[in-house]
Each structure stands twice: as structure tokens, then as C-alpha cells.
Write a structure and sequence with these properties.
690 residues, alpha+beta, 7-stranded antiparallel β-sheet, 19% strand, elongated
């Protein structure tokens, strides 16, 4: 059993610890017990005489004596170390300061030191991790070894430089900045002479020393390979540190590139050579109306015209090395977009993939899949739900539907804002008029004015011949639904305010004023008040729009509705997919009801559509659910006093779930938990999470 020497209030105590049980077989063989005692013997009279000679004269007459040890003795003598009563660790450093300053080193060294212990088990030697200034961070080994070490404070916080305790493996390695082995009377202080200490520095990728690793134990059991072993352990820790630094640099680079991509006004999607999505920016996610996790890892269907035929872009040989205009169908089938495909070429001239720049096809920024759709398809009777929250919302929407007042729908993504907008229009006095939905966040900034207000012939370069009517004019006599109103550019908001005040527009490049009879329904998943407070939304437009607010409840707050929605959509989707699903296992609903649903009803429908496609029989089982839903399963709630769970248990369970959800990817798990990688490693060590 391995123990760790710990300290509290300058008193040492022993802590039982578990070490890894699978050391490398080759390394273990090198340090097997057959080597113990192969090199060093008990302290001889001659060696003792050499040490005594130096104490008396300050010189060593033996020409073969180790000059580095002699130099260390001289430094110890100059530091006025008492060779007979000294050699005991002092000048303790606060453990809090010690651990905070060396957090990265402790985390990266832990697994290597555990493996090293397995190689030394039964030898009587202990393993020590030291900070760059010579303070001990960790002392671990068998109980007998640690008890011997405790006698001269060879534990956490103690200072083990030459200036503090005389010549020793740690202090001498620190002084020279090189591996060092000090054995027997080579130690300046008499109490340390029964020991052999082998120490090696640990460096960062830039060569800076950040600590030391040491093996110390009985001189008579020392091995000629111990210095090589400690050097190998130091190198193994260095490799882990360099790898961690590389991860951090890569993460910083990814963050930088992500910031660049999200600053671009166009939708950008990166795919590999087979068309599998590897990343996309926020604009692309909005254009596709999908959460990134619904797209990344999925295959895009892209076609290109070749010799008069539509062919698979990713299988067309001629598409490899040139820019191509392609038609892209998103994974959910919610629209077709044209895109410019820019190839990514390696140094070896291999095609690594493409960067797709999305642009709307015709009027694809309309929320409806069919650009020509001008009528509302849904009514209040189409809204599924029996929870108090959804019933109260429907009741409020029905009360205000007949009037002409402006309505703002507030709700998270996927809560059904367009569904409510259509239902309000269908129940209004202008239900016979057109219903025109527009996504304000999907129209390019430079085109939004012409798209909303229209333009006359020759208004600008590239304008359609004969001009075009805008969405306000198209909605005349009906309802204009402005989704993602918070994404409308500030410079356009003043024009919208003027239209709302004057109830008239003037097309771009024209002089004729067109009077309007249009009801406005706006929607957003952000707080317009907060956006106004940040200066991202005009104050005057906010108060002009803020006539009637209807807050749409999140799916998680609609108690009981998940079961209703699941049964409705499974029936509808199974018929559409040619399946005959008759049963839903109770556990399926349990899993669904315990998911937090950041994508709300839209996410639920996508999950059910995915599941239905994998059902071969007539029963919907848990195994048919997507993996990310099953990985986030929570415990069924139990009523009673035992529900009160200690915070450390909640933290431990949450860390385990994050690591499981991201398949062991520590970087992603740490990001999801809102903490740094090193902090996560520390907590994993604290809770024994592997």
C-alpha cells in the first residue's frame, strides 16, 4: 500500500493512497529487486575519513574524489550548515501557496509518479516531487520509508536546498541544474548519510526548470540504474507538460479562429473531403436554423452541375482543386442553399476538404421552406400541450389576436415563436391577408433595406430589372412576422421605427410613398431590454414595439407536455418514414423528461425523427434515442430528506457526467463545466476520477 506524507500546522501525518496498478513491464524489469544492493555497500571507514578530513581541513586529498560533491560541500560549509546536527528540513512554506504555485506540475506528474512507485514497491525507497525553488510538494512511498523521512522533515513544504540542509540529491541537482546522485557520506550532514538520493530537473518546452523528481532510500539497497530511472521519469513528466502546452496553444488558436469566423457576416461551414461537417460559425447556424451540435459530424448533401447533369459534388473528380458553386442540402432537410466551395489543399497537394460560404437561394431567408408561401398554415388548435404554462400563453395570445397592436414574442430557440405568430394571424381580423415571415438575422446587412422596402428599376448595381416589392408591401393587408428582431442592424432600426410611426414606405431608389395596413409581430430569443441597455437596440424602437409581450414557455417548464408531444410526433414521423410504431417504452419518456432541452420543441422533434429512423419493429425503446440524450440521463427524483445531497457529491457526479458526455475529452468537459483544464484535473484527482 502506498502512503503520502502530508502536513498540517507544521505536523506531519500519513495518508493512505491508491496507486495505478499497470506500470510498463520493461521499466519495471529494470528496477526489479535483483538490482538492489548491486552497486552500493554500507558506509566504509575510508569514505567516512574523507568526509571527516574535509570537516577538519576544508580540503580533500583524494585526487579521484567527485569534484561536484566537493564544490557542494564547500557551499554547505559557506552556508554554515552544521554537519552533525543539521540536515533537517526547515523554513516550511504554506501548503496553500505551495500547491497554487505548482498546480500544473503536480497534476502532470501524478500519473508518472504513481507508475514509478509500482516499479519501486518493496524496495524501501520513496518518491519525492519538488518545486523549482527546492520546496517538497509530494513525498510518497511505503509507511516504513515515510516514517524514516519524517524524522528529518522530508515532507511537504520543507526547504531542501544546499543552503538549507547541505549537500543532498535535490539541492545539488538544483544548484547545477542537472541530474545528480548523492550517496552515503557524500551527504554533508551526518543524519542523511545512510541514504542514497537521485534527483533530476523537470523542464518546460522552452527549457525552464519548474521542479525536480527524486528517489531516496537506504544506501545499501541502491541501484546503479536509479539515476537513469529518475531522469526517465522527469522526461516523462516533461512530455506531458509539453503536450499540455500544445493543447493550450491549440485551444488558443481555435478560440482565435472561432472569433474570426464569427465576425464574418456570411455563413461559413467547414467540411472534410467527404462532406462531413467539422465546424461552422454562428451565422451559418442561424442560416441553417440548427444548433451546431445538430450539424457537426453530419454529412452534407452537395450537388454540382457537370455536363448538364446534377452530380454529387464530393464524388466528382473535377471538383477537387477549384472553386465551385454548389447546391447544399442541410442534414435536417430544412432548406437548400447555394454556396461557394473553396478547397483546402495540403502541402502535398491533397484535398483536405472545403470551406463553404453559404448564401440564400432566391428568398431562402424566409422562415417557410417554400418561398412562395404567403398564408399562415397553423391555428391555435395546432399547438400541442396541456400544461398550465402553455394554456395560459395560448389564452393570452387569443385575447390579443383580433386587434392590430404590435406583438413581441419572447422565447428560447425552438419554443415555437413562428407557430404562435401564424396562430395569432389566423385568429386576427386580417386573417384573409398574407402572412409574410422574415428572419432579420439571415438577411445580409447590405440587402436588408431593399428586401424590406423593395427597390425600383436601376436602384443599384445588380438590381433586378423592373425592380422588386419589399416584404412590407408584400404583407400589406396582412401580417409581417419579423423573427430575430434583435439581430436587425442599428442603422436599419431607425428606418423600421419610421415605418411603424408613419405606416408608409418608400422603395430604395424611388420617390413614390406606399401606404401600409400591416400588423407587425416580432420575435426574439433575447431580452430586448438588455440589448437596449447594452446599446445594441434603439430605445425609441424598443418602446414602440413593446406594446404587447407574450413570453413562450421553455419545453422544460411545460410539465406533462413532453409525453403529449412525443406521442404526437412519433405517430406523425413514423407514418412519414414508413414505420409502424405502436408502443413507446415508459423509460423513453423518463429519459426525455429528464433532458434539459436547450433546443426546446425543435430539438425534441429532431431527436424523435432520428429515433424513428432506427426503429425496425413496433416499439420505441431507449436504445433508439441519440447517444447525447442517453448520456445526460439524470436520476429519477425521490421525495424525502435524503434528497439533500452534499455539494461535493454533486460536484463529483457533475464532473463524471461531463467527462462521460464528451467521451473523455478533458478540454471540452472543462469548457462545459466553466473551469480550466488544470482545475478539472485537480478536481479529478481530488475525487479519484480516472
Amino acid at each position: 500500500m502506498m502512503y503520502i506524507l502530508s502536513r498540517k500546522n507544521n505536523r506531519f501525518y500519513f495518508v493512505e493512497s491508491e496507486a495505478c496498478s499497470t506500470p510498463d513491464a520493461l521499466i519495471k524489469s529494470i528496477f526489479s529487486p535483483k538490482w538492489y544492493g548491486a552497486t552500493w555497500q554500507r558506509i566504509t571507514k575510508v569514505e567516512k575519513e574523507t568526509w571527516a578530513e574535509f570537516l577538519k581541513t576544508g580540503k580533500v586529498t583524494d585526487p579521484n574524489f567527485n569534484q561536484k560533491v566537493l564544490q557542494s560541500w564547500m557551499r554547505s560549509r559557506q552556508a554554515e550548515i552544521d554537519p552533525h546536527t543539521g540536515g533537517v528540513g526547515r523554513d516550511f512554506l504554506s501548503l496553500t501557496k505551495l500547491e497554487s504555485r505548482n498546480e500544473k506540475l503536480i497534476i502532470q506528474a501524478e500519473q508518472v509518479l504513481d507508475t514509478l512507485y509500482q516499479c519501486l514497491r518493496g524496495s524501501g525507497f520513496m518518491i519525492v516531487l519538488i518545486g523549482k525553488n527546492g520546496h517538497i510538494l509530494r513525498s510518497m512511498g511505503e509507511l516504513e520509508s515515510l516514517r524514516r523521512a519524517e524524522k528529518f522533515n522530508f515532507g511537504p513544504g520543507a526547504h531542501w536546498t544546499e543552503e538549507a540542509v547541505g549537500t543532498n540529491g535535490i539541492g545539488t541537482s538544483l544548484a547545477f541544474g542537472q541530474p545528480a546522485q548523492v550517496t552515503g557520506p557524500e551527504h554533508y550532514c551526518e543524519c542523511q548519510q545512510p541514504w542514497t538520493c537521485s534527483s533530476a530537473p523537470i523542464r518546460t518546452g522552452s527549457g525552464e526548470i519548474i521542479g525536480f523528481v527524486d528517489i531516496s532510500g537506504p544506501r545499501e539497497r541502491a541501484s546503479e540504474h536509479q539515476l537513469g530511472m529518475v531522469v526517465a521519469a522527469a522526461h516523462a513528466i516533461e512530455d506531458r507538460i509539453v503536450l499540455e502546452e500544445s493543447y493550450d496553444q491549440l485551444n488558443d488558436t481555435n478560440q482565435y479562429l472561432e472569433a474570426i469566423l464569427n465576425s464574418v457576416s456570411e455563413g461559413i461551414v467547414a467540411v472534410n473531403a467527404k462532406g462531413v461537417v467539422t465546424s461552422l460559425n454562428k451565422k451559418a447556424a442561424k442560416t441553417l436554423r440548427l444548433h451546431p451540435r445538430e450539424v457537426i459530424g453530419q454529412s452534407l448533401i452537395a450537388s454540382v452541375s457537370s455536363q448538364g447533369e446534377s452530380k454529387n459534388f464530393f464524388k466528382t473528380r473535377s471538383a477537387g482543386m477549384i472553386k465551385e458553386e454548389v447546391q447544399v442540402k442541410v442534414p435536417s432537410g430544412k432548406g437548400i442553399f447555394s454556396a461557394k466551395a473553396n478547397p483546402v489543399i495540403s502541402k502535398g497537394k491533397n484535398n483536405l476538404g472545403y470551406v463553404l460560404t453559404l448564401k440564400p437561394k432566391n428568398r431562402s431567408y424566409f422562415l417557410s421552406d417554400k418561398p412562395s408561401a404567403m398564408k399562415a398554415s397553423y391555428r391555435f388548435s395546432d399547438i400541442i400541450g396541456d400544461s398550465d404554462s402553455i394554456r395560459q400563453t395560448i389564452k393570452k395570445a387569443k385575447m390579443v389576436a383580433p386587434g392590430k397592436s404590435t406583438i413581441v414574442l419572447l422565447g428560447e430557440s425552438g419554443t415555437g415563436k413562428e407557430l404562435f405568430a401564424q396562430a395569432i394571424h389566423s385568429a386576427s381580423d386580417c386573417c384573409s391577408g398574407p402572412f409574410i415571415p422574415v428572419n432579420c438575422g439571415a438577411i445580409p446587412k447590405e440587402l436588408i433595406q431593399s428586401e424590406l422596402f423593395g427597390y425600383v428599376d436601376g436602384a443599384f448595381t445588380g438590381a433586378k430589372r423592373g425592380g422588386s416589392i419589399g416584404k412590407f408591401e408584400a404583407a400589406n393587408g396582412g401580417t409581417l412576422f419579423l423573427d430575430e428582431i434583435s439581430e436587425m442592424p442599428l442603422e436599419m432600426q431607425i428606418n423600421l421605427l419610421r415605418v411603424l410611426e408613419e405606416k408608409a414606405i418608400t422603395p430604395v431608389g424611388g420617390k413614390k410613398v406606399i401606404h401600409l395596413n400591416v400588423r407587425i409581430i416580432a420575435a426574439t430569443n433575447k431580452s430586448l431590454f438588455e440589448e437596449m441597455s447594452k446599446g445594441l437596440f434603439r430605445e425609441d424602437l424598443y418602446y414602440r414595439l413593446n406594446v404587447i409581450n407574450i413570453v413562450l414557455p421553455s419545453l422544460k417548464s411545460r410539465k406533462g407536455d413532453i409525453g403529449l408531444l412525443t406521442r404526437y410526433w412519433v405517430d406523425k414521423l413514423s407514418r412519414k418514414a414508413g414505420r409502424d410504431v405502436k408502443k413507446i417504452e415508459p423509460d423513453v419518456l423518463h429519459w426525455l423528461e429528464n433532458h434539459h432541452w436547450p433546443g426546446n420543441v425543435r430539438e425534441l422533434v429532431n431527436v424523435l425523427e432520428s429515433a424513428v429512423n432506427f426503429i425496425l419493429g413496433d416499439t420505441f425503446a431507449v436504445r433508439h434515442l441519440p447517444a447525447y440524450i442517453r448520456k445526460k440521463q439524470l436520476e429519477k427524483p425521490h421525495i424525502g430528506q435524503k434528497d439533500i445531497i452534499p455539494l461535493h457529491r454533486l460536484e463529483k457526479e457533475n464532473i463524471k457526467k461531463a467527462i462521460q458526455f464528451y467521451d473523455g475529452n478533458i478540454t471540452q468537459a472543462a469548457k462545459a463545466l466553466g473551469i480550466g483544464r488544470n482545475t478539472l484535473y485537480d478536481k479529478m484527482r481530488k475525487y479519484g476520477i480516472k
